[in-house]
Amino acid sequence: MAGGMNKRGGHPYGTMAERIAATKAAAASPAPDPAPAPASAAPSPEPGRGPDRLRHCWVRDQHGRLPALLLEWRRTASGWQGRVVHPVPDPAGVGGWILVEEWLPAGTLDQA
């Protein structure tokens, strides 16, 4: 078969054995110390917010069970609500999807 899986010398990556050896050598070497943050660095985000707090979840609504990103929680008089971003069918009826950001009751969210 022309152009099969054996392409020795045709690329700069080396043979499989050479790539494995390089990966093992890189894993065995100590990681360099991270550079200290400059004094003018922005403060870290408040706890409970920011990209490190995003969680995948499922939204149950009239469109079925859809994937979502849970951005944050809040407590209201009616109970807990999650702020989520999730797809919904395009109301223009062109067969596509749009993204919606909204606060939903905790009972409509499932853990992923």
Condensed summary:
It is built from one helix and five strands; from the N terminus they run H-E-E-E-E-E. The chain has one helix at residues 16-28, and strands spanning 55-61, 64-76, 79-89, 97-105, 109-111.
Give the low-pLDDT segments: 37-46
Computed CA radius of gyration, to the nearest angstrom = 24 Å
Distance between the termini: 44 Å
Number of strands: 5
Count of separate DSSP helical elements: 1
- The strand order across the widest sheet is 4-3-2-1-5
Note the beta-strand portion.
35-45%
* Form type: elongated
- Mean model confidence by pLDDT: 76
Structural class: mainly beta
> What is the string of SSEs from the N terminus onward?
HEEEEE
Sheet with the most strands, sense and barrel status: 5 strands, antiparallel
Verbal overview:
The longest helix is centred in the N-terminal third of the chain and has 13 residues. Strands 4-3-2-1-5 form a 5-stranded antiparallel β-sheet, with no helix packed on it. It is elongated and about 60 Å long. Strand 2 and strand 3 form a beta hairpin. With 112 residues, the chain is mostly beta strands.
